[in-house]
Amino acid sequence: MDTTPVDMSHLFEQLGLANQAQAITQFIATHKLSPQTHLTDAPFWTQAQKSFLIEALEADAQWTELIEQLDAQLRRP
To answer: For helices 64-75 and 21-30, what crossing angle results, to 10°?
Structure first.
């Protein structure tokens, strides 16, 4: 059983990104998605990050809700 806490900090850790609050805020501020770009097609993901996101969304994994929140935040002007 996976006991990894499910929060934005740990999602960023799973993605191999800096996971401190300031780093997350900075990432969201500097990486934006257009309305027509699917989250997993964003040019700023590595192949490993993209694969993690696709697998988590397809499996409706524990990360799905947080990934959807991240997607929404990356679309805010």
So the answer is: 50
Q: What dotted CATH number matches 8-75? A: 1.10.10.1130
Q: What is the pLDDT of residues 28-53, one digit of tens each?
A: 999 999 999 999 999 999 999 999 99
Distance CA 27, CA 5 (A): 21
CB-count exposure of residue 70 (10 Å: 0-12, 13-18, 19+):
buried
Rounded to two decimals, what is the model's pTM? 0.90
